[in-house]
Design goal:
globular
Length: 354
């Protein structure tokens, strides 16, 4: 009888822990998955538009804006906007620690489409990386915290103006200014972390503001008008500024470096900083047990491993010996003075510097 009681207690404990996500979390999950689908495809369409525009005008990587006249780039931009709208809505229903890591799906989509449409090779270990991203994302989804109950945008503003998050915001702004005015002019064309660093740092602030606006709109639609509060419009201003900055530097990164490199590095940095910002501002981990937190971190590390594989195997080809992989390095150096070798050498050198 004692054994049966123990088994029943364990069964109830398991059922209580894994009885399923709340309806809000489910809505956020569906919206986040849809968002990743659109955003992953938009990387490829925008890349093709940037390449087409760069063939007839000044490339975005060197400060040009000829891509604004390219219809294909606008198709990619519209696709990304649709994905961002879905992402925007997802943050209104689910915590950032659930929504943001699901961006791993966009890495998989962009890597596969780049392999098919842009002829950017995807190694067998890259496929393994995609699988790891899916496994890690699933782990995080299963153990994600429930959404925090918020009844007014003023509550979000109070969270954003606490000393901890104000310190984080100050550090982010200082780092962005240093990157833009010190490192980007000198190293932007050769070090991918310059462009991606700006996008990721600014992005972590934009997500917090997007979540605040999403909550405000959700409450407004439920009958509690939040548009009358100045805090709602303050968050809106931050979102507009951050999104424009992200778009500008992401375009530079896509035009300068391989898409299969930009996507995973951007995802890793953006997700890491967003989770950090969410933990500081919304205190997501205060509502979870140590076991859940550790499991989420394991899932996130699994995703990082997958993106690392995608990055490290981007130039590898399937073959019986590793010798061919090493040959292009010397070939590029020998052909550095040829007309056709110059752009190839610049692109690969930039990729290796990461």
């Amino acid at each position: 009888m004692f054994k049966m009681a123990m088994e029943e207690a364990i069964h109830h404990s398991w059922r209580d822990s894994y009885r399923g996500m709340s309806s809000d979390n489910v809505k956020g999950l569906v919206l986040a998955l849809s968002s990743s689908l659109f955003i992953g495809a938009s990387f490829i369409v925008k890349k093709k538009g940037l390449k087409k525009a760069g063939a007839t005008g000044v490339r975005a990587g060197v400060g040009g804006y000829s891509y604004l006249y390219e219809p294909l780039w606008w198709v990619g931009m519209i696709t990304m906007i649709v994905g961002e709208i879905a992402n925007f809505a997802a943050y209104a229903f689910a915590p950032a620690i659930l929504v943001t890591p699901l961006g791993a799906l966009s890495i998989i989509i962009s890597a596969v489409l780049a392999h098919i449409m842009l002829k950017e090779k995807l190694h067998i270990f890259g496929i393994l990386g995609c699988i790891l991203c899916v496994v890690g994302s699933t782990t995080i989804v299963v153990h994600a915290p429930q959404e925090r109950a918020i009844e007014s945008v003023k509550e979000v503003w109070d969270l954003a103006t606490e000393p901890g998050f104000l310190l984080y915001t100050s550090m982010v702004i200082a780092a962005v200014f240093v990157l833009i005015f010190r490192f980007v002019p000198q190293y932007g064309q050769t070090h991918i972390m310059c462009y991606i660093g700006v996008c990721s740092l600014v992005g972590s602030l934009s997500v917090m503001s997007v979540k605040a606006i999403g909550i405000a709109l959700k409450l407004t639609l439920s009958g509690l008008n939040q548009l009358i509060y100045p805090q709602t419009w303050a968050f809106t201003t931050v979102v507009i500024f951050c999104v424009l900055t992200q778009m500008n530097y992401l375009n530079k990164a896509l035009d300068t470096f391989n898409t299969a490199v930009v996507s995973p590095i951007y995802y890793v940095m953006f997700t890491s900083l967003t989770i950090l910002a969410s933990v500081i501002m919304f205190k997501d981990w205060d509502r979870q047990s140590p076991t859940q937190i550790v499991t989420e971190m394991c899932g996130f590390v699994t995703i990082l491993s997958g993106t690392f594989l995608l990055h490290r195997t981007k130039d590898m080809t399937d073959g019986p010996a590793p010798l061919p992989v090493r040959l292009p390095k010397h070939t590029d150096e020998d052909d550095a003075f040829s007309h056709e070798g110059i752009p190839l050498r610049r692109q690969e050198t930039a990729s290796r510097s990461t």
